[in-house]
Amino acid sequence: MTILLLALTITASQILLGLAMGCAVVRMLRGPRAQDRILGLDALYLAAMLLLVTYGIQTGRTLYFEAALVIGLLGFTGTVALGRFLMRGEVIE
């Protein structure tokens, strides 16, 4: 019973994360300002990272956890760089 419940919960979370990714893509494409597009991109990489984590839990392989860690680090760095670019007009001081 618990294995079936875990499998259904992981599948439901993957479906919801896919919907969240779709909403983030819509925000990226239709955002009226650059800040909205950056937040859409931030939400997109976060949902992709969580999707990889849930898939790693489902399959039991550690490769997906490492890929999620790399996506998290690169996504955070990219968000900070884009935010700094919007605030100051330059990334590197």
TrEMBL record:
Which residue ranges run through the membrane?
6-26, 38-57, 63-87
Q: Where in the cell is it found?
A: Cell membrane
Q: Which GO terms describe its molecular function?
A: sodium:proton antiporter activity
Question: What coarse category fits the chief subcellular location reported for this protein?
Answer: membrane
The keyword Lyase is assigned to this record: no
What cellular-component terms does GO give this entry? plasma membrane
The alphabetized UniProt keywords are: Antiport, Cell membrane, Ion transport, Membrane, Transmembrane, Transmembrane helix, Transport
Would the keyword NAD turn up in this protein's UniProt record? no
- How does the protein associate with the membrane? Multi-pass membrane protein
- Please report which protein family the annotation says this sequence is part of: Belongs to the CPA3 antiporters (TC 2.A.63) subunit F family.
Instruction: State the protein's name.
Output: K+/H+ antiporter subunit F
Species of provenance: Sphingopyxis bauzanensis
